[in-house]
Amino acid sequence: MPKSSIVRFTRAAGVAALLTVAVGLSPATARSDKEFLTLEKALETAFRNSPNMQDARYRLETSRQNLMAQQAGLKSQFNLSLTPINVSNAKNFNDLTSQYIYTSATKSSARFSITQPIRWTDGTLTMSNQFIWQEASSAYTGNIKTTTFNNSLSLRFNQPLFTYNRTEMQIRELELSLENAQINYALQKLSIEKQVTQQFLNLYYTLEGVKIAEEELKNSTESYEIIQNKVQAGISAQGELYQADLTRLNSQAGLENKQIQYANALDQFKILIGLPLSTEIEAVTDIRKNLVAVDLIQAVAHGLDNRMELRQKDISIANAMHDLTRAAATNEFKASIDLQLGLTGINDQFNTMYESANTDTLVALTLNVPLFDWGQKTHLIAAGQAQVDSQKLSFQEQRKSIEAEIRQAFRSLRNLERQIEIAEKNVRNAQLTYEINLERYKNGDLSSKDMQFYQLQLSEQRLNVVSALINYKLALLDLKIRSLWDFETGRPIVDAIEPA
């Protein structure tokens, strides 16, 4: 995967085209019109209201602001320090006269500086100007007050030598932290998409259960009426009527249970996407058989090239390498060079300060030479290298895991295609069986208890088709998330962006 990447989603493009939820207003509003909430809008609502998404956004913003703050610190820093008044009176021992002398002084000073960090060398360039006005007297000079003006202008450059660039490393670590936060945000969106789609399809499944239970109640009621007419005509025994009534009441109880399940599923869906529980939602979803051609080789290749978890492993390796660099810098031989050029003027008159100015120069080379550290550096480097090796091993194992996930999702999809075909054939057979036995039941050749069996069998097979279609949609979504390729639209769901 490219070093900086973020996911922009085509959220459930194929499923959203097939699924909608009609949202009615609360009864308190007394409105008859309804708003329709597609899966796309449900996802947008969940992305906006989910606590996990909000936390991911906060973490993303924290990383972004930290990086921006660090980058701002690389620009020229202006500083002004003022001491408007400083009055001192002291009794100090004078070595020249071997006696204590009283001194008094009044000062005012100001210092202005411009500091420019240099990212590419880790050096610092500083220009400063300090102005001091002082009026002082002492018993040694007969308490005569003297006034002086002092102004010092200097340019200084400091450059570390023989060590790593700490400024560049800190910036890089913050960039990686931001990228990792972007990846976590994108992964959280994928997780929310999967949860919302699963519950959306579950909502459809429970509604289909209600519809089938309604049809089952209708059929059992019709059967009861047929037996009732036969009993009244003396064709069937009274026991058949009791059995038909029992079947009808069981169907009614089953319908009520399905309605409760559907109401509970509605509430769970509202909570997930952040809708008020008082909002009335009526599912008007539809699932159609729409099998999609899937290329396993393409899915594996695209997943391994673009899965964000692998990029996170890359970031972990990079951070481990940075830790190894710091370990190698423990008790290191290093140096720094300081160069300074300044001009200082001192006089008792402000406008003549620089008549006899002094030129100040400084060239300093500082060396740090470690002599013996009892093996501390060696052990830290070994620990750092072990951590790097561990992260690399984790990267390789993650690649294997991702490939295995994609292959498993592919097999599951293929199996579900076969399950859909079997379920559809079972429905056809169950429908034909039910119609044949319904005629036998009308002719009095079949008992109510036996008829109930064929009716329940038909209902079960119809729900099996719905379940197979839903499982296929979820398996297709799972493959999309694991490969980051949408086989319904034929497009990737990963777009490369410029580094943060």
Quote the beta fraction: 15-25%
CATH fold naming of the largest domain: Outer membrane efflux proteins (OEP)
Percentage of helical residues?
Answer: 55-70%
**Which stretches of 5+ consecutive residues score pLDDT under 50?**
1-33, 496-500
Q: Tell me the structural class.
A: alpha+beta
Total of domains: 2
| Radius of gyration, in angstroms, nearest whole number | 40 Å
Largest sheet: 6 strands, antiparallel
CATH secondary-structure class of the largest domain: Mainly Alpha
Named CATH architecture of the largest domain: Up-down Bundle
Topology of this structure?
Layout: E1 5-7, H1 13-18, E2 20-24, E3 34-38, H2 39-49, H3 51-72, E4 77-94, E5 99-118, E6 123-138, E7 146-161, H4 166-232, H5 238-273, E8 280-283, H6 296-306, H7 308-328, E9 334-347, E10 358-368, H8 376-442, H9 448-483, E11 485-486, E12 491-492, E13 494-496
Helix pairs in contact: 2-4, 3-4, 4-5, 4-7, 4-9, 6-8, 6-9, 7-8, 8-9
